[in-house]
Fold these 4 entries.
Entry 1:
Amino acid sequence: MHTIGEISRMEAQFVRDGVDLRLLARRQRMVLWLFLGSAVGELLLFAPGASRLTAQGAVVEVMIMLSVRVAVIAGTVLVLRALRTNVMLLIALTVLMILPLVNLLVLLAENGRATKTLRKAGLRVGLMGVKDEEVVRLLGANRCRKCSYDLTGNLTGVCPECGVPIAAPMARGLAG
């Protein structure tokens, strides 16, 4: 079992420029999978020749699709929060996302912003985002908090890649 202090230090290792990259990566993947499910569902639901057995079945299908669309909007809001978006902009975008085309445009824009942020930290972002295991592997404990350079064995107290000072406990921890 980890203490609260240990958990805070473990979570802090994934923060770059005030953004928790692990949280952002998780939320981006969730939204991308929800969006993919929504797109496939709508294609199946509204495809020409799609047969519905009963009126009740059609209502259930539409309710499921609306639920998924609401989940995509909620997930996009979570991505916006992980990106530390201004609260007023977050509220405005959330209201605008009720509109179908605007929803897609906001999703695409914020997904691009999330991808850029993750790539800046040295992560390879694929079609469905970056896996949590990759974030942990590439941004783990022995990485520079600014540029993600591998600091294993560094005893200088300074990142050789970007020149940022390394916290004293981290530099000592690398020595032992």
Note: Strands lie at 15-16, 19-20.
Entry 2:
Amino acid sequence: MGELRAERDGGVLTLTIDREARRNSLSTEVMRGLLDALVGVGDARVVVVAGAGEKVFCSGADLTGMADDATGLEQHEGRGLLVQVVLAMRACPVPVVARVHGLCLAGGMGLAMGCDLVVASSDARFGLPEVDLGLWPFMVSALLARHVSPKHALDLMLLADRIDADTAWRMGLVSRVLPAETYAADFEALVARLAGKAPAAVRLGKASFAAVPEMSLEAGLEAMQAQLSLLATTKDVEEGIAAFFEKRPPRWTGR
């Protein structure tokens, strides 16, 4: 069995880092597997990123996997895989959801922040311990600066404290916190709801949301007007309006 499990259940594609003995750390095999899966989602409606077991979502880079005989260029390119994974999450046409339980540390926080939604169990803990190893979370900091205030970001990186899920939610690192006692069932229900949303609207909406911050206000408004006009031509909009008036669940086709 490989280090990344890909399982399909209806419209949900779940990618599980299967390295529980290594605290679900990010090996080259895991990151290449994530890349391949993210660019080949097919007709999936949602992608879930998870860690095996219940103790650790992801502990970051696999420090034991840094070969002593690897050249500086090889190590640099290996670190770049996380960059590629995060960019692939952004480009993925469907929502990518992090299923965070237990510990979420270092590059694991980068992996979670790269997802569109982060749904944490109330027993989850987050932290950036790099400075205590003489390192610095450089790539994670690029994401962190887009989610939390500068003061919160530097507090996390300089002090290396672990924070609980509620604190992470208040900072803006987490989308939702679900009770640990019912987390599995609650998460499954939430993802099923997400998978049931209008595919055309979700795909166009996600891409547009990512593009807007890079535009001026005027350009952003004009681009969103164009996207709305495009979406209005789809069969999904026609079906959604018909279902509303007929008081029935919509039957989405993604067209």
Note: The domain at 4-195 is CATH 3.90.226.10 (2-enoyl-CoA Hydratase; Chain A, domain 1).
Entry 3:
Amino acid sequence: MSAFAFEGPVEIIGHRGFSARAPENTLSAIDAAIAAGADAVEFDMHTAGDGNPVLFHDAMLSRTTNGVGPIRRRTLEQLKKLDAGSWFDAEFAGERVPALKEALEHIGDRIPRIYAEIKGFREVEDLDRMVRFTAEAGQKERTVFIAMNWTLLDRMRSQDPGIKIGFVVDDAETIEDAFARATGDENALIDFRGDHLVNDPSLVERARAAGIEVAVWCIDDVGQATQALDMGVRRITTNEVEALVTWKRSL
């Protein structure tokens, strides 16, 4: 059985939680994705100034909090004083930036898979902590570490060769390298930006022939999801979790 096996016709992955329903990369967004029936959640990670991994997308604080400046200049305690919800809706005023440890414990066994994307770090030891904290939380088997910068995944593998990883393909020029890295690695997948597969559907067949697992991001439309599934893509990352879960149940 594949290390990435799941039940049902398709795995619906909540992008940054349920980011169309709640502020991205927060516990509320994770809860909303799970409540909507997502099969997995994806979130982004940066490292605070004291070495604590946190759920956050941008290098700067201003878009999704009432703070300013680089996230790496704030300790976890300082980040916890920021409002990470009001930018989305007043309903979420007071929402906090979650620490990775906190999020993993909060998720528990409520969902089968977690996709943790590394967006930023201060030093390589920060990556080691991400791996260690995930194992200590009992979430190693559920978690797939993904990144656009694949040298980060190399470092994480050096700490634990058994972790699952995903090569996020944003630039078409990296596709061949992704195939080279993932071929023969039963604990690795390729996570394609949606338009790459639309432009070249043969990539899915090629991956299948090589025994490589494939995911796609971000698909928010049922028509596009159907097209992806028809190509053979069975892992779909979406902002519109509820709509795609409803679609999945109709298959």
Note: Residues 222 and 247 are 7 Å apart (CA to CA).
Entry 4:
Amino acid sequence: MRNNRRTELVMGSAQLGLNYGAANRVGKPARETALQLVRRAVDAGVGTFDTARAYGDAEDRLGEALADRPATRTITKLAPLSDLAPDASRETIEAAVDASLDQSLTALRRTSLDCLLLHRASHITAHDGAIWERLKEHLASGVIASLGVSVQSPAEAHQALADINVTHLQLPFNILDWRWREAGVIAALQADQAVTVHARSAFLQGVLTAGDPGFWPLVPGVDASSLMAWLEDTARNFRRASVADLALAYVRGQNWVDGVVIGQETQDQLDDNLWLCTRPPLSAQDCALIESTAPRVPQKLLDPAQWKSQ
């Protein structure tokens, strides 16, 4: 909530193109349902959408749904480029980058990209910087309006913030996540008003709000029932309507967060999220109090990429 600006609700689209989320029991919605969800969000005032080449056909669905709504803004991510060999030539690398951009432009039905993020922070330096250099060329030509990075860790965030071309940062953040504060990332973001920050995973892939310990990953040192009890008690103590209200109000109450990315696969979920964003965010004082009493969870819980390796 920079400079007293209201934290924006950004509609995520991973669920629209993939079976995504630890607590997702509905699955990927049918195409027409996905289009209706996007259009309903626009009609409710949502103006920014988050997607990626790696999200199945999410870009294509957004492109179709938003074709007659030019005032909206779409943030997408470069393809993971996993097929590039370590010794790939510069020409091969540039062709792979160009192909990802062309595919995004075609799917989104745009002549330029509002914002492109690296889906892999390592691509800033990979291949002697060839990927990043090619993207900066497209930034200079106007094919990309702004560049940024989707990061997974504080180390990646610090690396991204060191590059002046990074004007957008997306990171996972929730009410249990202590990493960014302790690593100095939040202090760096508070000091740099030029970088737009979007927080994703406010509900930790739906685990925090599932209401069932069976949805929690089996991480050593994690007592799901105790954490659920703390979340429920905290929601009551701060007079929030639910754990979802608490979790979202906490992220929206951060003065360094410009937008919160939330995905949904049903109309009920969308309506709930829209309603939650009409609720007041927590104050800075309330956020600080919660941080002082929050249980210390293992870092592995905060990184869903590690859940499958247990």
Note: Residues 2-309 form a domain with the TIM Barrel fold (CATH 3.20.20.100).
